[in-house]
Amino acid sequence: MSPLNDRADRAGHAAIAGSDTCGAAEAIHDLDRLVLLGIAADLHRRTRLRDGAAHEPGVVADDLGAARRHRWIAGHWLAALRAAGLASRDAAGRYHGLHGPRRAELAAARTRMEAARLALGYPAELAELMLRSLRLLPALLRDEIGVQALLYPDGEPATAEAVYRDNLINRYLNAAAAEVLRDQAERATRPLRILELGAGIGATTADLLPVLAARPVEFYLFTDLSPFFLDTARRRFDSGFLRYALLDIARDLPHQPKELDLVVAATMAHNAPHVGRLLDQVAALLAPGGRVLLIETVREHPQSLTSMPFALSTEDGPPRRLDGRAGTTRTYLSREEWRGSLEAGGLRVEVDLPRAGDPLAALSQRLFVATR
């Protein structure tokens, strides 16, 4: 990889200096196991799977009282439980043999979760989110509450900050991303033009903006699909070059061909119906030498099963995918698929972190930086 990859990696690890990452893989396993056992317990309690017979996912969705747009989630969960050895599936696609966790097993998993949280540098709010989502599974499935109520209990952003910023992997990735921006600013021959897609609560923005202090910046366009996040960012950030705009990446991107020095997309590009098409559009916006900076998940961990699927549901059910995920319920691309999509768009990958063998790789979140 490039010298920039090395500098970004060093900056990322400097941001988490003193943290012991060696137990990351075991900690992730414990968090995943807690959620899987919680889902298994809920299905065993509330559906006919407890009778030992084989049943189709649609029947399980009926038992759960799932809203029309969330019915697909029952099958998504059952597939995850089967992959974890907690359920079986017959040749007809029906599920049976669901494991019914005992109270002692759930209590032990809860204890391990607390140790895992501490090992991964997760704040208490993130652990509470996991437990709260398990408690609220019936209401979530019936569409009586939404994911935003989980991420913003009482309207406060602390839980969302815990998910997207205040944890070990995001501190590493955001610091590495800031080093990339620093390099871009030092190479620039004119004031920078930056676009951030789906900026959300500004979890990555908050680490990028300090790099731009006292540097020439023409604009930093902060975009999101929701006015809520734009209003929040206006109150949070105070930079004269910041601009704000509503933007839906499933539709057209801004028409600024070959003008941008950097396009940032942190934990949002997977929402595009066709990732390759999105990256082609992004490449067309970049000036020669311009970069796209992606922070992306490359594997769906079970710990997200009680939140992410509900955020992705459409009125017709699962999200509509037109790329390699078409016909599946996959949320994310693999590392190899992300790299292939960037390169197919005429972008050369310069940064791909964490490195192979780094314990942080077990968290399955990565920084990709590619240059036009």
UniProtKB/TrEMBL annotation:
It comes from the Bacteria. CDD domains: AdoMet_MTases. GO terms for biological process: methylation. The keyword Cell cycle does not apply. Pfam families: Methyltransf_12 (PF08242). This is Methyltransferase family protein. GO terms for molecular function: methyltransferase activity. Transmembrane segments: none annotated. It comes from Nonomuraea polychroma. Signal peptide: none annotated. InterPro entries: Methyltransf_12, Methyltransf_Superfamily, SAM-dependent_MTases_sf. Residues 195-292 form the Methyltransferase type domain. Gene3D superfamilies: Vaccinia Virus protein VP39 (3.40.50.150). Keywords: Methyltransferase, Transferase. PANTHER family: METHYLTRANSFERASE (PTHR42912), N6-ADENOSINE-METHYLTRANSFERASE TMT1A (PTHR42912:SF93). The keyword Transcription does not apply.
